[in-house]
Amino acid sequence: MRHLLSTRELTRDEAVALLDIAEDMAAVQQREVKKLPTLRGKTVVNLFFEDSTRTRISFEAAAKRLSADVINFSAKGSSVSKGESLKDTAQTLQAMGADGVVIRHHASGAPYTLATSGWIDAGVVNAGDGTHEHPTQALLDAFTMRSRLHGTASRGKGLDGVRVVIVGDILHSRVARSNVWLLATLGADVTLVAPPTLVPVDTTGWPASVVYDLDDALAGSPDVVMMLRIQAERMHGAFFPNSREYARTWGLDDARFSQLPTTTMVMHPGPMNRGLEISALAADSAQSTVREQVANGVSVRMAALYLLLSGERGEA
Ligand code: NCD
């Protein structure tokens, strides 16, 4: 693997192999010394043009636990705010000898541009580009589902027949897109639920069904309910009447949560709008995987950086 830009391009074997390596990385996290020497002497740059808490910290922890040198770059406070282009920024990183670049950008396709432009030799990991993809989030979500379902017997497994309902702001969600592709590749059955205004105009070709009634979707007792954040910062107009109406119609509120089977996993990539798309009861329940998702994010990102940056690039 040379770059990790989207889950759409991953084969089942590649995805399962990455999740299996993440299992090994998770085992390392249980040790007293959590660090591996694998990426000693390599430099990973975290290039964040958009705000992030979990993803940035998680990539930083992952790179450090593999003994890489880490440089954190955020657009605020850098020359990007003076109008420096992605090309100039990339060339600066190239001159500094970056081996890996983790990039989050508000423009869909920016990581792809960076990876294919020839501006830089580094391996590129997409940490979320616009409304396009967020591959490591989908991989950590799949890892979390696999561990809850199969525990220590997860290795080698996909998610065949697992019924996943993804609810909310599909339109603006790169997490939803990356999950749809990856989950389908792993054999899961995906249903998207949202108000019609928050469904992309064209979902033909997406390996998922789209429905508009949350109660109907939940009545099928899915194995996983993944709630998405309402991305107010990407909304320039009214996509639903008001927050109360949204919570009542499309939120996982206490009433809906209490009707779910106790085996249904409740997932959310964070940051959560408590009381809007998810109630505190649901978010903090034993069925919620929110904190596991964050912990698993480090293991999955260690696996991705390992595959991209260890040994001879392109051979893995
Ligand atoms: C997501 C993102 O940034 O795409 N968050 C994350 O990475 N944990 C989802 C979101 O912002 O709602």
Give a short summary of the structure:
It comes from Agromyces terreus. Residues 2-146 form the Aspartate/ornithine carbamoyltransferase carbamoyl-P binding domain. It is built from eleven helices and nine strands.
Question: Main traits of this protein?
Answer:
Rossmann fold, EC 2.1.3.2, Asp/Orn_carbamoylTrfase_sf, 9 strands, amino acid binding, alpha/beta, four-stranded parallel sheet, 316 residues, 2 domains, globular, binds N-carbamoyl-L-aspartate
Describe this structure in words.
With 316 residues, the chain is an alpha/beta fold. It folds into 2 domains: 12-134 and 294-309, Aspartate/ornithine carbamoyltransferase (Rossmann fold); 135-290, Rossmann fold (3-Layer(aba) Sandwich), CATH 3.40.50. Helices cover 38% and strands 14% of the residues. It is built from 11 helices and 9 strands. The chain has helices at 12-29, 54-65, 86-95, 110-116, 135-150, 174-185, 214-219, 243-250, 254-259, 280-283, 290-309, and strands at 43-48, 69-74, 100-105, 123-129, 163-167, 189-193, 209-211, 224-227, 265-267. The chain has a 5-stranded parallel β-sheet. α6 (174-185) links the parallel β5 (163-167) and β6 (189-193). α1 packs across α5, α1 packs across α11 and α5 crosses α11 (290-309). The longest helix is centred in the last third of the chain and has 20 residues, at 290-309. The protein is globular and about 55 Å long. It starts with 11 loop residues before the first helix and ends in a 7-residue tail after the last helix. The mean pLDDT is 94. Bound molecules: N-carbamoyl-L-aspartate. The site of N-carbamoyl-L-aspartate has 11 residues, from α2 and α6.
